[in-house]
Each structure stands twice: as structure tokens, then as C-alpha cells.
Amino acid sequence: MLLLFLLLFLLLFLLLFLLPPLAVLRQQQSRGPSLSWLARLQHHVAWGLLCWVAAWQQRRLEQRTLHVSQSQQQALRSCLKRAQGPRSPLRGSTDMSTFRNHFPLTKASQAQEEENGGQVPTSNQHHGEASLQATLLGLAALKKAYPEALAPGGKACVTPASPWPHPLPWPWHALSQVSSPGSKDPEALLLEALRSPGLRALEAGTAVELLDVFSGLEANGEELAEAIAAGNPGAPLPRRAAELQEALEQGPRGLALRLWPKLQVVVTLDAGGQAEAVAALGALWCQGLDFFSPAYAASGGVVGLNLWPEQPRGLYVLPPGTPLIELLPVKEEPQEEAATTVLLAKAQKGKEYKLVLTDHASLTRCCLGDVVRVVGAYNQCPVVRFIGRLGQTLSVRGEDIGEDMFSEALGRAVGQWPGAKLLDHSCVESSILDSSGGSAPHYEVFVALRGLRNLSEENRDKLDHCLQEISPCYKSLRFRGSVGPARVHLVGQGAFRALREALAACPSSPFPPEMPRVLRHRSLAQLLQRRVVS
Questions:
Q1: Which residues, by range, are in coiled-coil regions (predicted)?
Q2: pTM of this structure
Q3: Residues 221, 241: contact at Cβ < 8 Å?
Q4: How far apart are CA 341 and CA 416, in angstroms?
Q5: What is d(CA 493, CA 120) in angstroms, rounded to the nearest whole number?
Q6: What is the chain's mean pLDDT, rounded?
């Protein structure tokens, strides 16, 4: 029986191997109404194989999450054995105490955190086992929730980076894509998507990258329409160019569905600092669409798997295995971290933890700074929501305004600005820009808005009031005059895109590209300062 199964598997693979790549077939059929039967056959067989591999990965996940302590013990032993050398037998105890002593907890220096946008610079090995598992299970979950989204030509990626953590080898890498995989030209990717009105799924590396795509689409709509009209003379593309212009004339709200009437879901990879972009996209350009992230990724790799595309906000399973994940209660002091971490089986529902990752390649044990709240369990593994990043905390007098707290205050303030929609923001402590000028230290806040061109003094003051409502400590410091009022600046279009390009140009730029909300490099803060319009 096993031999028969292997022969069948080999036959199917050879069938795919002998067929020309699906992207080539799709290009040959670009002027026709539908794909050839050969392309459809390749698509069907390739998806059958992918679903089989995904089912195998699902069974592995089930076994590991049912026996999470055993799975993490194996990962722990693997790290210890690598540290002692591949040819040396594993000596001594392999309990957590031994592991902590062998791998002391490290934290990035302040300068490294600034350079990396607040991330801990662990090795950039995101193409590991957890990443492959996240990709396969994410595609299977997406196909189950939105079957038509993964039909031939049903999805397109509009950024050079993919939301899927691990690239799939041929013949799977071209499945359902309307553009050639691996393309690095953002304009070419967007044009290919715009030429395909039947899309069911729209992909982008992260939500902030997709925000840049839609902003660029509005700014360069006329040029894109001309490129579409000139790209294929004699085909029905001039009509598509007219549809693009007509859709843009109606404004940003619901633009995606006007461009692609059959669109069902937006797929982006979740990383730090994406919540505002998701909210802005959902309220404007992608109104009426579902959002799905296959995984939560940090600089150390994939740390959470999303098995529930139907959830409005991302829920992630923290998987056992490599990289080894430990949980550190947020209430503990830094000097106590090494003694108080717990493994996944010990996580308690309702509690918040910092993530500690031991990278299997570099054998570094780092506190990432990402904070999660345990909301449930998948077998014996915790299911979490990501709350924020401790490296994104504001503190000029010891008040410690966290990322989630500041975002809540800013959201309340923007809600009181008539017609305004928040697109992006970053903060700077006044000492970074030397902007106190003899006055009390304060926050400099840079915002990108839609629907509001100028900020009145009354509107600017509302942020400071909201911060005082949320933080009693901040309110007390403001009352005593120890902290000055937050200063709000409106930046022009493209300011945050320029910031992201500057971050991506750094040699140590991590994967995935997190969006820093607190800037600690003067050059980055000055980049936004030069683009202030109000």
C-alpha cells in the first residue's frame, strides 16, 4: 500500500514537472477569456499535493501541541547539543535550570534597538521549519475559508515582499498568482494586479506596505491608467484603464472593491506596528473586506501560527519546537528574567507575557520585547493576542507610556478631530531633537492623516488631555510641570513611506520590517521633521 502511494505521488510530481510552469501558461493565455485545460490541470494537481503536505503538517502540529512539554524538551536538548558541538555527547542535566545557565538571557543594547527600530537583533532565519509550517497551514486555512480566492489567477501580491513567511518551491510558487513570482518592481506588480479585475485575494508583505501601495495608486493613478491602456493594444485593456480612472474619482473609501468587485480577503504578514495600517485600510481603501495574516513574525522568526482566518483580529498559536519560545511575566524586573521564564505548558489564561526566543542557528536567547496576552489554548499550547512592544515605550520622567497606551490615547484624540482618519504616527522624546529649549521635556508626535489638512491648537491639545485620562502618572507629572504638553505635527504625503525606505536601507534591517512607533535616532526623527506641513 505504501509503495502504491509513493508511485502515485511520483507520477503526480512528474506530471507537474513535465508541464510548463503555470505562470508561462498564464502569460500565453493573457489575451484569452480563460486558462487552458493544461494550466487548470497543473493547478488542480499542484493544489492536491500542497493540501496533502499541509495535512501532514497539521498532523505534526496536533501531535506536538498535544505533547507540548515533550516537544519543547526536544528543542531544549537540541540547543544544548549544538552548543556543546555536534560530535560531543550530551552531558549532564537538560532541565530548564541547566538551559538558563548555559544560555543567559540577553537584551539588545540601546544603540542596537535604535538601529533596528526597537527589535532585538537575533539571526534573520525566517525560512525555518515554523515558517514553512505557517505558510502551508495558512494556505490551507485560507483555501477552506475562501475557496475561490485560490482559484487559478485568483490572487496577486502587490509588493516585492510576500505575506507568506516561507517561499514555496516550484511547482507551487506560481499557484493562483497573476504575476510572476519573485518580481521586485512594485509598479509592475501593481499593474499586473490592476489588469486582473477578477481577483479574489490581494496580498502584500505587511499592512503598512499595502498602505503605501494605495497611497501611491491614488497619487499616480493617471500614469497607471495610461500604462494599462498602452500595455496591450487591441485587448479590452483601454476599458480597464477607464474603469481605474472612474474608481479613483470616487475617492478612497471602498476603492479595492471597485477595482476588483470579486475581492474577498486581504492577506498581509503581521508584525509589530501594523494595527493602525490595518484599521486605516479597513476604514478606507479596503472597506468591506476581511483581513488575514498567516503568522506573527518577529526578528527571530515566526513565533505564532494563525489557524483561524475568520477571526476579525489575529489569534496565534505559539508553537513548540524551534525556535524555542519561553514566556516571561511582564510584571517581573529585568534582573529576575532568567529565573522566572516558563515554558508554553505553564502559560495562564488572561496573563500577559514577554516573549523570549532561543534562536537555533545563532544560539542566542533574547527577550524580544513583544508582549502577548493568553486568550485560550490549542490542545496544550497557548493561543495569544499580541498587545505591543516594550521597546516602543515613551518615558521622559519615568512615566513609561507603552505602545498600546499611547495608541489608545492617540486614537481617542483623532476621533475628536472632525473628518480625520489616522494613517500613521511616530513619536520622539524631546531630548532626541533637542526641542525642549529650556522647557520641560515632552513628546514630539508626527501624524499622517486623511481628511484633515491643518491642525488647530485645540485639536493638538486633545492628545495631551487624552494621555492624562489614560495615564495617572502622566497626569501627575503634567500637573507638577515636570513634563510639558505633547506637541503634535502633521506630516505630508509620503513622509512615512520615506521613513520606511530609510529603515529598510539599514544594513541591519530585520525581517519582517516592523514599523517603529518611537524613534530613537535623530536622523530618522529629522526625516519626519523636514516633512511637517502643519
A1: none
A2: 0.86
A3: no
A4: 42
A5: 30
A6: 82
Residue 461 CB-half CA count within 13 A:
3
Q: C-alpha angle 237/239/243, rounded to 5°? A: 110
Choice among 85-99, 221-235, 321-335 with the minimum mean pLDDT: 85-99
pLDDT at 486: 96
Cell 496544550 sits on residue: 380
Report DSSP letters for 426-473, one per residue. Answer: EEEEHHHHT--TTS---EEEEEEEES-S---HHHHHHHHHHHHHH-HH
Q: What residue type is assigned to position 310 of the chain?
A: E
Look up residue 243 and give its three cell numbers.
474603469
Which conformational region is residue 117 in: left (phi greater than 0), alpha (psi within -120 to 50 degrees), or beta?
A: left
Exposure string (b/e) for 341-380, b if CB count within 10 Å is 16 or more?
A: bbbbbebeeeebbbbbbbbbeeebbbbbbbbbebeebbeb
pLDDT recorded at residue 397: 93
Q: Which three cell numbers stand for residue 405?
A: 497606551
* CB 525 within 8 Å of CB 519: yes
Q: At what angle do helices 37-66 and 2-18 cross, to 10 degrees?
A: 140
Residue 441 preceded by cis peptide, ω within 30: no
> Which amino acid would we find at residue 266?
V
Q: Which helix (H) or strand (E) holds 489?
A: strand 487-490
Q: What is the pLDDT of residues 37-88, one digit of tens each?
A: 666 777 777 777 888 888 899 999 999 999 998 988 888 888 887 777 655 5
**From CA 397, how far away is CA 441, in angstroms rounded?**
8
Backbone CA torsion sign across 242, 245, 249, 253: positive
Mean pLDDT value of segment 309-315: 79
How many residues does this entry show for the chain?
Answer: 534
